[in-house]
Write a structure and sequence with these properties.
The complex is a heterodimer.
Chain A (H helix, E strand, L loop, with lengths): L17 E2 L2 E2 L1 E2 L10 H13 L10 H20 L8 E4 L2 H16 L5 E5 L8 H10 L2 E5 L9 H7 L4 E7 L11 H10 L3 E5 L11 H4 L3 E5 L10 E5 L1 H6 L10 E4 L4 E3 L13 H17 L1 H20 L4 E4 L10 E6 L4 H10 L2 E2 L1 E3 L4 H7 L4 E5 L6 H19 L4
Parallel strand pairs in A: 3-15, 5-6, 5-7, 7-8, 8-9
Antiparallel strand pairs in A: 1-2, 4-10, 9-10, 11-12, 13-14, 14-17, 16-17
Chain B lengths: L5 H4 L2 H8 L12 E6 L6 E9 L2 E10 L2 H14 L4 H15 L6 H7 L15 H15 L4
Classes of the chains: A alpha/beta, B alpha+beta.
Family (chain B): Belongs to the NifU family.
GO biological process, one term (chain B): iron-sulfur cluster assembly
GO molecular function, one term (chain B): iron ion binding
Chain lengths: 412, 146
């Protein structure tokens, strides 16, 4: 493996800590990534030297803060190859971004009798906003199902995507199955039917190069905290002509052009969507995170994570009675592997792994309709990042064996 | 690497209740029943309470969950049956105190029976919700439910 990935614990001091007297093996990167010193220091530096509110004062500090805040918008645009920084709206999170689209754009374009097409592998955050929109507008919410190998059934998608479809909302990479969907192809199909496409890139943007113009996404959303930045900062990319049509959904300071006793007018996008003092520190950190990722290179990060997944996958499939959800091909897993261990409940497995320093998620992963389709209540999920090591994965597999043996010895 | 500490949580009596839970069935003539969900894992437990006068005559549960939630539900059905309504509600409260690592009275310990050993859950804070789910359902059922 390239040297770039050696000694990353210098950048991520948390990776040096111990959990229950064992070295930490952090495998819950799909829930949130760890934050490198470079991001934390940039935020600290901002608060120590440049802090002021943005888009308000005329004094030097306020100008510096505003310039830094807007400079990151350029960086985000470049990171996802957006046509303009004005197509980048800062939000709280992916969830916040998707709610903004469903509320503002959804209310604008979806009418009675329309169909909204999503997939059964969506996270609740890319499901419930559309479910609610469909209820509000008396529209129909339809689901694309899975193939036998638990990848997206493209034939079903083509069948359900019709001229009635107003909007397609789909995850780029599933937070449970780890599969990456062919967004470019789906966008093309959606546009052939005059439907819009909303892409949830929360699980992809830190793991592969995402290019909104190449994908031809109408909207694309992601969160800072899954890409080395802090919690509370998200991004909503929208095509400029669509953002221009959309009404704001929150009102207050910063988003207005002028206000009288009886009326108000809004700024242009993206600022009309950013009411109130924004998460300035979060934005500054997001810029540092993009610098960090870009310095390594998204192609190299992707290759590294593929290598780690390819290393881990056969070791897991070799464990007797371990069931992996999703494709049987490691290359289809984008660093996310959900599994169950025999009849053991995921919580019991996760507690055992935790005792051995291995931090994984156990639960429904905010994807209950998918869990129902898979026929399970919950799963264990391990999710990798480029900063994980081969040693981490060896410890993880060893820990699974120990947990399995522990419960095998306990009356099961 | 060692899992010795896990033995504090998954003791033989816990594993026994989980693999052979007591009173795991619906009570069609229950006075009240309440279903609760563990939002983090999607586990669900419904507690059924059959009252006669002021006494808890029968307690049962249905639903799926991990070893801890199933064992705890099973122990709950044993513990609350036969108590008065006031005692049963106080028993649930005592159990909540116990799994948070607090001391409980000798009288409360007698009510809880086997469930007293789940005091070890206090050492595993992430699992407190698993242990308390059935008891919260029972408490709500005792206090009215539907």
């Amino acid at each position: 493996m390239p040297n770039k990935f050696k000694n990353l614990s210098h950048d991520f001091p948390i990776l040096k800590r111990k959990i229950n007297d064992e070295p930490l093996v952090y495998l819950d990167n799909a829930a949130t990534s760890q934050t490198p010193n470079q991001v934390l220091n940039r935020i600290g530096d901002f608060y120590q030297h440049s802090n002021a509110n943005v888009h308000r004062g005329v004094y030097t500090l306020a100008n510096e803060a505003t310039a830094a805040y807007e400079q990151v918008r350029n960086q985000v645009a470049a990171f996802i190859n957006a046509p303009s920084a004005k197509s980048i709206v800062y939000t709280r999170s992916t969830t916040d971004s998707l709610n903004l689209i469903a509320t503002s754009f959804g209310n604008l374009v979806v009418t009675q009798g329309d169909e909204i097409l999503i997939t059964i592998m969506e996270h609740h955050s890319n499901l419930i906003p559309w479910q609610q929109l469909a209820k509000r507008k008396h529209a129909t919410l339809r689901y694309v199902e899975l193939n036998a190998d638990q990848t997206l059934d493209m034939a079903d998608l083509k069948h359900k995507l019709t001229n009635k479809t107003k909007l397609v909302a789909i995850t780029q990479t599933s937070n449970v199955l780890g599969v990456t969907n062919p967004i470019k192809e789906i966008a093309k199909l959606a546009h052939q039917h005059q439907a819009y496409i909303v892409v949830d890139a929360a699980q992809s943007v830190a793991h592969q190069k995402v290019d909104v113009q190449d994908l031809d996404a109408d909207f694309l959303t992601f969160s800072g905290h899954k890409m080395l930045a802090t919690t509370g900062i998200g991004v909503c990319y929208g095509k400029p002509e669509l953002l221009a049509e959309m009404p704001p959904v929150q009102f207050g300071g910063e988003m207005i052009e002028s206000v009288s006793r009886t009326n108000a007018t809004w700024q242009a996008a993206p600022w009309k969507f950013e009411a109130g003092t924004p998460n300035i520190g979060g934005v500054i950190g997001l810029g540092a995170a993009i610098d960090y990722l870009s310095e390594i290179g998204m192609a190299e990060i992707n290759a590294r994570e593929q290598q780690l997944t390819a290393y881990l996958f056969p070791k897991l499939t070799a464990v007797n009675k371990l069931t992996i959800y999703g494709s049987k091909e490691a290359s289809q897993h984008a660093g996310i592997i959900s599994f169950n261990l025999g009849q053991l409940h995921p919580h019991d497995v996760a507690t055992g792994l935790d005792m051995l320093g291995v931090e994984v998620r156990a639960g429904h992963h905010c994807a209950q309709p998918l869990m129902a389709t898979l026929g399970v209540q919950a799963t264990v999920r391990a999710s990798l990042s480029f900063y994980n090591s081969v040693e981490d994965l060896d410890r993880f597999v060893q820990a699974i064996q120990m947990v399995k043996e522990f419960f095998a010895g306990e009356s099961k | 690497m060692s899992l010795n500490k896990l033995n504090q949580l998954y003791m033989a009596v816990v594993m026994d209740h989980a693999s052979h839970p007591h009173h795991k069935l619906a009570l069609p003539d229950a006075t009240t029943s309440v279903e609760l969900h563990n939002v983090s894992c999607g586990d669900d437990i419904r507690a059924f309470i059959l009252m006669k006068d002021d006494k808890v005559q029968q307690v049962s549960f249905t639903g799926n969950g991990c070893t801890i939630s199933q064992a705890s539900a099973s122990m709950m059905t044993d513990a609350l049956a036969g108590l008065t309504k006031t005692e049963a509600v106080a028993g649930c409260e005592a159990f909540f105190q116990l799994v948070m690592g607090k001391q409980i009275s000798t009288k409360a310990k007698a009510w809880l029976g086997d469930a007293e050993i789940l005091g070890s859950v206090a050492e595993f804070p992430a699992r407190i919700k698993c242990a308390t789910l059935a008891w919260h359902a029972a408490q709500e059922a005792l206090e009215g439910g539907n």
